[in-house]
Design a protein that fits this description.
alpha+beta; 10% strand; three-stranded antiparallel beta sheet; 144 residues
């Protein structure tokens, strides 16, 4: 559920976000190459602490402070309607380069997320994972 801003603006609408939905975000490590059609010419220059948080991985959880860096790349996977179609098909250029398919990359991200949240328990686990307190957002429903 979108909590901030209270009403969807132009940016949220352009990204296809709705007031309620399901999505996952991950931050891209700027030292790891991605699909040819999704790389920026120059990666973000994250602080040493943020780079250490990657622990050599290509992706990690996205936190608000990461968006303060120019050229920060993040992946937003939303709940889809119908078939994903071409969204999980590799480009010809990536196939020739022997890169992972989008499906393989999504499976790898899913496994990383499972490992990351393995220790979380109880109904407040989403708040723990996000590093926030449910008391910060009293108007947000916690039960669906």
């Amino acid at each position: 559920m979108i909590t901030i801003p209270k009403e969807l603006g132009e940016v949220q609408q352009d990204m296809g976000l709705r007031e309620k939905g399901s999505f996952v975000t991950s931050l891209k490590n700027p030292t790891v190459s991605g699909p040819a059609n999704a790389n920026l010419p120059k990666g973000a220059e994250f602080s040493k602490e943020i780079m250490e948080d990657f622990r050599g991985r290509g992706w990690m959880e996205l936190r608000a402070e990461h968006l303060n860096y120019e050229n920060a790349q993040f992946l937003l996977i939303g709940e889809g309607e119908g078939k994903l179609g071409g969204a999980v098909e590799a480009t010809k250029k990536d196939e020739k380069a022997g890169k992972e398919t989008p499906q393989e990359e999504m499976e790898k991200l899913e496994k990383e997320d499972e490992i990351r949240v393995e220790h979380l328990r109880g109904e407040d686990s989403i708040f723990t994972d996000l590093g926030v307190s449910k008391n910060d957002y009293p108007d947000v429903m916690t039960t669906w």
